[in-house]
Amino acid sequence: MNKKNKKSLSAASLATIGIVYGDIGTSPLYTLRECFSGYYNFSVQPDVVFGFLSLIFWALILIVSLKYLVHVMRADNEGEGGILTLMSLAGRNTTPRVTSILVMIGLIGAGFFYGEVVITPAVSVMSAIEGLEIAAPSLEAYIVPCSIGLLTLLFLIQKHGTGSVSRFFSPIMLIWFLTLALLGISGILINPEVLKAVHPKWAISFFKEYQLASFFVLGAIVLAVTGVEALYADMGHFGKSPIRLAWFSIVLPSLVLNYFGQGALLLKNPAAIKNPFFLLAPEWALIPLLILATLAAIIASQAVISGVFSLTRQAVRLGYLPPMKIIHTSEMESGQIYIPMVNWTLYIGVVLVIINFQHSSNLAAAYGIAVTGTMVLTSILICAVALKNWNWNPVCVGLLLFSFLIIDIPLFSANSLKFFSGGWLPLTLGLLIFIIMITWKSERFRMLRRMYQHNNSLEAMISSLEKNSPIRVPGTAVYLSHTVNVIPFAFLYNLKHNKILHERVILLTLRTEDVPYVHNIRRVTIEKLSGTFWRVVAYYGFKEIRNVEDIFHRCGLEGLSCKMMESSFFISRETLILSKRPWYLFLRGKLFIALSRNAMYEPDEFEIPPDRVIELGSQVEI
């Protein structure tokens, strides 16, 4: 590798520290403290401290390092990652029945992600600000208002984009991880014997000694790996090598040192369990550390919010969520987007969570079900990809799946016990999102099938119109069609009621591929159906902006000259009426109608000038 490539890799690795590792990087604020919380009834004893440290260390090694960085990140869709990407890859070379099962698994995983992100910003920011209890106990009453205030500011600035702020993220997070390491080293020097916890015998001995109680505490151990999905989801922004380099060179050593430093402090002073992270620092450094921890928590929250925006755009493009307003906040980076509906819905959820739970320990007690649920589903999907896409030996795939699930299932089972202490919240939110995605996809398919079930042959109609043409008017008529080889309803309505035809008719279909980007060479395909009829199919990846100006430009390059001011876009808008159906399908139909009414206006979605749109409506029974 030459100097230029090394420099580029180093710069990209530094960038990943600020974006990818924010969530997992703030876990030391609360993880070890929660292991000793009253929820699990463990006292600060040497064997317990060594057991917890050993479990945390091997969770970071086995789950983050081996599972995600070595295996899961191998599955990419032209460099892109994430649970929906993994779902698409897993379903490519299977039977329709298996594909439908894998789609369900992927959508449940996406729902879990949405449920998790309501808690993540709240627990990160509150854990940081709770350092006030150590620096100035009299300010404890201001923790909740300060948390809400900081997060309100964070959600307010989303509409301005993160580009101007993100350049500061990486340096701050680099300082954060170096601070974690230095604090950890200072603690380890107090009691170097704590390093023995690296040996897995301490974790094994812990399970043998405490048995059922040791199983329950896995619900707190998982807090050390929260944010692990970001490693895979953000792969498209940075690539595999920078993410792996940043983890093994900076993030992992800093986390391990800090956890072990906290453990050494507890061995010396068990009373430090009140907040071992902040008590690890000298008294003079408490205020600077509090400020730095708050900044790191805000950055971690920003990374989660950006992840929700990216996942939502991907779900919209793949047809699992209704179209909604997506604002691109950067002219250079397509990944920097802002979705108002998602932003403020998430904000309301986060504020309600903070008001209801009041303390980060209460939030931590509710945290983990969605995270570990996603981990289980990721294991199943990655093994499906290995079996069908990579053609691995079935025995090897079975062993790999077993090695993943033997860790994931106990973690998920232990966290399931948190259901009544708040774990119901992320599960309920995840279930709601899953129902919305399934409803939109299935009911939309039902609606389109109903609309086109009696559709006549497109070729026969064009041939008939060319022979016996109605009155022709100047200009180009563009009819948006969801499916090729069918007659657009707007075309039928215009012909039936206005009894005219434009000089040139273009039947335009926009398709979203299950890849992030489509090369411009493949952007449009043009087919001349007759002397005056043309079919244009435009292809876009799920991360791209669909724009008719761009389509017209590509058509011009291919020999079909189109001018926006000489074209009229005919769009059909359907009023949906429910047919008689069972009560559960009736409720699903009502939800679909509500989603359709609030979906983004189609011309806005494709950036069609409003003065070029002609809308024709009809009633459709579903």
UniProtKB/TrEMBL annotation:
Recorded topology in the membrane: Multi-pass membrane protein
Compartment list: Cell membrane; Membrane
Reaction(s) catalysed by this chain's protein: K(+)(in) + H(+)(in) = K(+)(out) + H(+)(out)
TM spans (from-to): 48-70, 98-119, 139-157, 169-190, 210-233, 245-267, 287-316, 337-358, 364-387, 394-413, 419-440
Main location as per UniProt: membrane
Keywords: Cell membrane, Ion transport, Membrane, Potassium, Potassium transport, Symport, Transmembrane, Transmembrane helix, Transport
Domain (K+ potassium transporter integral membrane) ranges: 13-463
GO cellular component annotations of the record: plasma membrane
One of the record's GO molecular function terms: potassium ion transmembrane transporter activity
Function: Responsible for the low-affinity transport of potassium into the cell. Likely operates as a K(+):H(+) symporter.
Record-linked InterPro entries: K+_transporter, K_trans_C, K_trans_N, Kup
Name of the protein in its database record: Low affinity potassium transport system protein Kup
Entry similarity comment: Belongs to the HAK/KUP transporter (TC 2.A.72) family.
Keyword Transport: yes
Record-annotated K+ potassium transporter C-terminal domain positions: 474-622
